[in-house]
Amino acid sequence: MKIKRLDRRRALRWLVVLALVAIVVLYIIVPAAFGIAVIFPYQESVGAPPAGFDEIDLTTDDGVRLTAWYAPPSNGAAIILIHGAGGSRESVRDHAALLVENGYGVLALDLRGHGESDGTTNRFGWQGTRDVGAAVAFLRQREEVEAIGGLGLSLGGEVLLGAASEYPELRAIVADGATQRSVAELRALESERPLYRNFTARVMYATVQLITGQKPPKPLLDSMREAGSTVFLLIAAGSNDMEIKFNDMFAATVGERATLWVAPEAGHTGAFSRYPDEYEQRAIGFFDAALLGHNGDPAS
Length: 300
Description:
With 300 residues, this protein is α/β, with parallel strands linked by helices. 44% of the residues lie in helices and 17% in strands. It is built from ten helices and eight strands. The chain has helices at residues 2-39, 93-101, 128-140, 155-163, 183-186, 195-212, 220-226, 241-254, 271-274, 276-291; strands spanning 54-59, 65-71, 77-82, 105-109, 147-153, 170-176, 231-237, 258-263. An eight-stranded mixed sheet has the order 1-2-4-3-5-6-7-8, with helices on both faces. β1 and β2 form a beta hairpin. It is elongated, with a radius of gyration of 22 Å.
């Protein structure tokens, strides 16, 4: 009987140990590993510029060299075009072509640590406002550019939304697949406020902050509220409930300044490939209304 009791106690102790190990792995080690992966250097290769584009370099206010493609506008308005996390301007070629075909200038940018740009990789784009600032500064110096907008995919959309309050020159922003990039932004959703819902995210973001020394940027909702003259076209994947929730919240925050399109059955940033004609109609119509006058000239 004593032997059986000892065996049971040993088994119970092992079960407790295994449960604790599982908790540590799932709630500490795995999210910390994701945090490390976010800042692990990886740069997507970039091909030759599309026809009509020049390859240029920009410099941020903290001295980071960024690479970009630039095509001048025929209608006086230029769009800053930004890829998603881990991508580069290579992944937005089709979007660039769409904009140019409709008369818009395009500055397709590699965020720092992405593509061929210099700088430390951070797939949350915490330094993205500085990168957008370099793009805005470049376009402000171009005589052919009289109005500026932005189109970003996933991280690119979040970076543009986050920069909106700093750069009122961004008069119109299309954010395709934007959600969140910090604990504060995640907790803006009521469903994500309990600790059990955001604990692993806290570990992941804390890992990034600890290793890089960077701080999370201004929350997206604050930036959008403060960008009082900027208008937004928000695109959410119809197959992604969390993405829909975030974009519903974004739209509700800025009211009449936002238009929301939930693309039925589309995956993350998949609206363009699934509904190319409607995407063109919505995005170009939005930019035309926000950046151009009724006669086709840049709006005052």
